[in-house]
Design a protein that fits this description.
Radius of gyration: 13 Å
Distance between the termini: 37 Å
């Protein structure tokens, strides 16, 4: 299993970023997928989850209305569109299967820095 996150970077508060997670080594549409994040010095925080076919999505309360999770099963890719970014959104973002992440599926993550 390989999960490669990308799309992170430096953005000003109020800005937007689109993260991608390229998946390989497993049947992508067999799994619901999630995004989680880890801010410096803190534990993992669940961000969002999407069902196998993309029809159902759920978000942590603080991300509702600002983040949009989506997937393209034909491309084996998971996305996270982030807008209205806040300082507290700064973290390394990871994708993994849902509902229970697998320790063997963690990628390198993609860092998001929110700073003026």
């Amino acid at each position: 299993v390989y999960l490669v996150e990308s799309g992170g970077g430096l953005v000003q508060p109020g800005g937007s970023l689109r993260l991608s997670c390229a998946a390989s080594g497993f049947t992508f549409d067999d799994y619901a997928m999630s995004w989680v994040r880890q801010a410096p010095g803190k534990g993992l925080e669940w961000v969002s989850v999407i069902s196998r076919n993309g029809a159902s999505t759920y978000y942590a309360e603080s991300m509702k209305g600002r983040f949009t999770i989506s997937r393209d099963n034909a491309k084996n890719t998971l996305y996270l569109q982030m807008s209205s970014l806040k300082l507290e959104d700064a973290a390394v973002y990871y994708c993994n299967r849902a509902p229970l992440p697998s320790d063997r599926w963690w990628g390198q993550g993609t860092p998001v820095t929110v700073s003026s």
